[in-house]
Amino acid sequence: MSMKLSLALAGIIKSITSIQREERAIRNRLLVRDLLTDYSEIKTKRGNIKLICRDRREVHYVKHFFDREPDTLNWIEEFAESSIFWDVGANTGIYSIYAALGTNVKVFAFEPASASYASLCNNIAVNSLDGDIISLCMGFFNSTELTKLSMQEVEAGGAMHGFSALDLEVEKNNQSCILQSTLSFSIDEFVEIYNLSSPNYLKIDVDGVEDRILSGASKTLQSKNLRSVLIETAGRNADDSEKLYKLFEGFGFTENKKINYGHDTIFFKP
After folding, report:
1. I need a labelling partner for 233 at 20 to 30 A (CA). Which of 89, 168, 188, 215 fits?
2. Cα separation of 21 and 184, whole Å?
3. Residue 87 domain-assigned (yes or no)
4. Number of folded domains in the chain?
């Protein structure tokens, strides 16, 4: 649907409801919005996945489910039975849901951005995976603190968020950013406070603050439970990449050089 047509339909709905009392008009407009909300279904080898599609990014994720990050899907398909998977930066939950379709895989999905978290919860519900995925509206950093999440926009599926204005490229360009208060933990302190088992598989996709998260996860990286880590490495310069690789080597990890997408790197313990 073109933007002109969308605006025209929105204008018609507003015009029709404008004769109603304000409260009733708002309620009816929201009802129309909910009725127009679409769910797309993706057929996978593990079963069908339903995903809510309220904006352009969510539609994009559905359309490019298989070709957006194919190595991530392949990695998830190799999870051992009854394992624990942490999805740090879960966004709207595509990979959390795909993992939960596996054999008794317990998923922890962490997403601090409120709009994406709302879609994440909706997607979990429509796929009847409430008992398999624990979703938490929070983030990880190198310390435990009440902080502010800097966002370019409040839209489900958004990216380029940071835990301070300095982390955002938009701030460097003098563009406005939106601040959302949130609670962040270091991974090690989160595990200790809530007496959790370390994950067997850890995915970190957090728009450039991966190093700070890892600096608060030394005990988890040392854990014998942790078998593999998938981390976003796109956009790193040579020095940053070398530091990251040395960090993982120091904890006994080896790079999986068989992946071919180039967006992420998978480290595993031999």
Report:
1. 188
2. 42
3. yes
4. 1
